[in-house]
Amino acid sequence: MFRTSALALVVVAVSTLHPAVSHAQDGPVSGKEVQETWVGKDLVGTTASGSRVLMRLEQDGKATLSAGNTNDSGTWRPYDTGYCTTWKTIRAGQERCFTVTRAAAVFKVANPDGSPSGQFTSIK
Questions:
Q1: pTM of the prediction?
Q2: 122 vs 84: CA distance, rounded Å
Q3: How far apart are the first and last CA of the chain?
């Protein structure tokens, strides 16, 4: 009995500290988590208006985006509660920082004013 309880306690302690396990929790997503889980992968989802979006963030700070009829490239960086992007043509090259939250397997992205920017439903 003691051995089983001790093992369960260790599993709980490790699962609350291990980054891969903590990523599965709903709520705010940190810039560090964005960097650890999104970099080098294709993020697929939809914009707030319903267009399909594909975004890719690279370790070297480069980024690419395809949304509806728009294709762009630029840079990205982690942000306290998400990430920031600067695109060559979108927003005339001005940086914008986005807040990310997770609800189940969906990453919801919000503009600085809190309005929805879109969501990512698949990370490949």
A1: 0.78
A2: 20
A3: 42
